[in-house]
Design a protein that fits this description.
Length: 233
């Protein structure tokens, strides 16, 4: 499963830098790869193989002045050239419309402090997806950390959790997840919370909270999206 592999690689053996703006794009790209590999929608697969449908990783849909999600998917603009990147099945290019929109968030530390902003961003993004016209399938992926400790970085400065002033992820994960379930999930057709454990300290270990359950949830989500795509488009 490409999405889960990409998500894991953000932390596993690597220092996670939360201010990097393209991380959500990477995760979303993995989702579209998984849709193709699953093969539940022949219509979707044929359009992707013909490069008629592409991922738009640019800031806007052509002719629509609005922020896009981390990976929007739609019809390639006529006369535009689809770009195929190495090891990816789904091409990139400018899109004329929006059929699937993905928004990705990762809560690794200070979750309760930022939960209002995250929920607000998630809600607004679904509104923006729908303003693009058509009837897009809106999908949200949110990573929630459950590690016993965590360190974030700002340049050369380190900010470790201490369990008091700066709560450990394991102290906040469940509360953050409950807020997401109540306040963000209803705005999306599909919404998956990705539970993980990462301390972000050398040697940068990573683990899933319950990988078998996550696999089942994610594969079910992929199947439903394929069925819904056939229904809508």
């Amino acid at each position: 499963m490409r999405l889960l592999d990409i998500f894991k690689d953000l932390f596993d053996g690597n220092r996670y830098l939360h201010r990097k703006s393209n991380l959500g794009d990477l995760v979303a790209a993995g989702f579209y790869e998984d849709l193709v590999r699953l093969g539940k929608s022949q219509k979707l697969v044929e359009r992707i193989q013909a490069h008629d449908r592409v991922i738009n990783l640019r800031n806007i849909t052509v002719g629509r002045n609005a922020r896009r999600g981390d990976g929007t998917f739609g019809e390639l603009v006529p006369t535009a050239v689809a770009v195929v990147e190495k090891e990816f099945l789904v091409a990139r290019g400018p899109t004329a419309n929006l059929e699937i929109g993905v928004e990705t968030k990762i809560l690794a530390k200070a979750m309760i402090k930022q939960i209002d902003r995250v929920v607000g961003d998630l809600r607004r993004q679904t509104q923006i997806f729908k303003q693009q016209g058509g009837n897009p399938i809106c999908i949200g992926f949110v990573g929630v950390n459950y590690a016993d400790k965590y360190t974030s970085y700002e340049g050369k400065r380190k900010f470790p959790t201490d369990g008091k002033k700066y709560k450990h992820p394991s102290q906040e994960g469940l509360s953050a997840e409950n807020r997401l379930d109540v306040e963000a999930r209803p705005y999306f057709e599909e919404f998956l919370i990705i539970r993980f454990q990462a301390t972000n300290t050398r040697p940068y270990p990573f683990s899933w909270v319950d990988f078998e359950a996550l696999q089942l949830q994610y594969n079910a989500l992929l199947t439903r999206v394929c069925r819904e795509y056939d229904h809508r488009f």
